[in-house]
């Protein structure tokens, strides 16, 4: 499929509220999909994690029913899209899931991943993508620096995600390292993030507004799409 043929084709998007769009309903993939004329179908869920959650992991019991990324993949249609984008590990870090031990990259492509570790759960999600959609190009979007999560922990989650994606031949759109947006910088958080209903500015730096995603995410995602389909 060429770049010119992507218009009208589907993107499946998986992950958390940064993909789903929190309360504004605009997430990191929306603008890039619109610019390419593609149909975006979101299976991401606000609050989702990479690791399967257990009772009492979340502050609210109902949040433990949120499907993790591997569960989202199982719920998605069998029909293969032209492209898949996903994110993850933000909520694993922010709610303090079982991140120690972090686990390790395996040499297996046949399952048996330790879902009690971030490495194992991330590998399992990638394996599920490759098993269900073996002919579809997949992009992992590494999200921006977030003010609420410790920087060292974000670095650790970022590095493990890149290692797993490299093993599974999944391309990375590295907003974390290359995107230029870092909401630890107060003015960036004020201009490009929001917390919930009532305002699309002055947020804590986690959820970007439509302008933020269009400015800082869309160009990198579109560049990756054009690289693979040109």
TrEMBL record:
A GO term for molecular function: hydrolase activity
SUPFAM superfamilies (UniProt xref): SGNH hydrolase (SSF52266)
InterPro entries for this protein: GDSL, SGNH_hydro_sf
A UniProt-annotated Pfam family: Lipase_GDSL
Entry annotated with the keyword Zinc: no
The keyword Hydrolase is assigned to this record: yes
Keyword terms of this UniProt record: Hydrolase
Top-level division of the source organism's lineage: Bacteria
Protein name, entry field: SGNH/GDSL hydrolase family protein
Organism from which the protein derives: Lapidilactobacillus mulanensis
């Amino acid at each position: 499929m060429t770049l010119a043929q992507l218009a009208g084709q589907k993107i499946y998007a998986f992950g958390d509220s940064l993909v789903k769009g929190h309360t504004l309903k605009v997430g990191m993939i929306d603008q890039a999909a619109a610019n390419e004329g593609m149909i975006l179908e979101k299976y991401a869920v606000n609050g989702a994690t990479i690791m399967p959650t257990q009772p009492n992991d979340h502050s609210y019991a109902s949040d433990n029913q949120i499907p993790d990324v591997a569960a989202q993949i199982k719920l998605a249609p069998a029909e293969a899209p032209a492209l898949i984008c996903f994110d993850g590990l933000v909520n694993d870090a922010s709610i303090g899931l079982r991140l120690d031990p972090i686990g390790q990259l395996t040499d297996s492509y046949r399952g048996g991943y330790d879902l009690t570790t971030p490495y194992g759960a991330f590998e399992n999600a990638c394996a599920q993508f490759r098993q269900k959609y073996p002919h579809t190009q997949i992009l992992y979007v590494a999200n921006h620096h977030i003010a609420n999560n410790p920087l060292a922990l974000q670095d650790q989650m970022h590095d493990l995600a890149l290692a797993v994606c490299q093993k599974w031949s999944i391309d990375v759109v590295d907003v974390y390292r290359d995107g230029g947006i870092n909401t630890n910088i107060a003015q960036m958080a004020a201009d490009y993030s929001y917390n919930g209903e009532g305002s699309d500015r002055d947020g804590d730096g986690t959820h970007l507004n439509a302008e933020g995603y269009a400015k800082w995410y869309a160009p990198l995602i579109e560049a990756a799409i054009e690289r693979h389909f040109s």
